[in-house]
Amino acid sequence: MNRRISASILAADFCRLGAELARVSNADLIHFDVMDGHFVPNISFGLPVIEAVSRCTEVPLDVHLMIEQPERYLDAFAAVQPEIITVHYEAVVHLQSTLRRIRELGCKAGVSLNPHTPLEGLRYVLDDLDLILIMTVNPGFGGQQFIPAMLGKIRDCRELISGRPIEIQVDGGVSLENISRLAEAGATNFVAGSAIFQAPDPAAYISQMRSA
């Protein structure tokens, strides 16, 4: 499976968002952490920002719903035509039907797990999944330090999917310093925000991440 770099727009300068998007035009995905202030202790942005970004870039969109009851908003987010919509395991009551609905709306279906959440609950929905997002920090704020214990969780996830074409995405503290270890553990999709947007040349940094 190809490895992909996802630039997290949460770390961009929103005063010059169009220019920021141009600086990461070589990313494989633009990643959106949608936060509601309830499921996570922060509020980020919603549909208007995602819709604006969709008009300013040709890079596919990756929408990570860090919100309560995400199933209520799937149709609205799918209307922006993202490649991926990811919901949190901890926030959904009927996970299988939610994942199926995401696919019905024409998007790839992802599920995210907080650092403390075990993988076992995904065993029975693997055939409904296109992506598993392993949070490598506690969600809610950018710029946090990577949790080293998550390397073991990534390895366990690779064993769990057992060769299925499911991307293993990692989000939180991802940088040039640890991307090779994450890839070795089994990650195939790498979300980075601060590391990319705070680099002097974000496009060059993305290229370096691919090489690493």
List keywords for this structure.
20% strand; 30% helix; 212 residues; alpha/beta; 8-stranded parallel beta barrel; TIM Barrel; single chain; 8 helices
**Overall pLDDT, averaged?**
95
**Strand fraction band?**
15-25%
> Helix tally?
8
By DSSP, the count of extended strands is 8
CATH architecture: Alpha-Beta Barrel
Structural class: alpha/beta
The CATH superfamily is known as Aldolase class I
Number of domains in the coordinates?
1
In short:
By secondary structure, this protein is α/β, with parallel strands linked by helices. It has helices at 17-23, 47-54, 74-78, 95-104, 150-161, 179-185, 194-197, 202-211; strands at 4-8, 29-35, 61-66, 84-88, 108-113, 131-135, 167-171, 189-192.
Report what the structure shows.
The protein has 212 residues and is of the alpha/beta class. It has one domain: TIM Barrel (Alpha-Beta Barrel), CATH 3.20.20.70. Helix content is 30%, strand content 20%. The protein contains 8 helices and 8 strands, in the order βαβαβαβαββαβαβαα. It has an 8-stranded parallel barrel. Strand 3, helix 3 and strand 4 form a beta-alpha-beta unit. The longest helix has 12 residues. The protein is globular. The chain starts with a strand and ends with a helix. The relative contact order is 0.17. The model has no long low-confidence stretch (mean pLDDT 95).
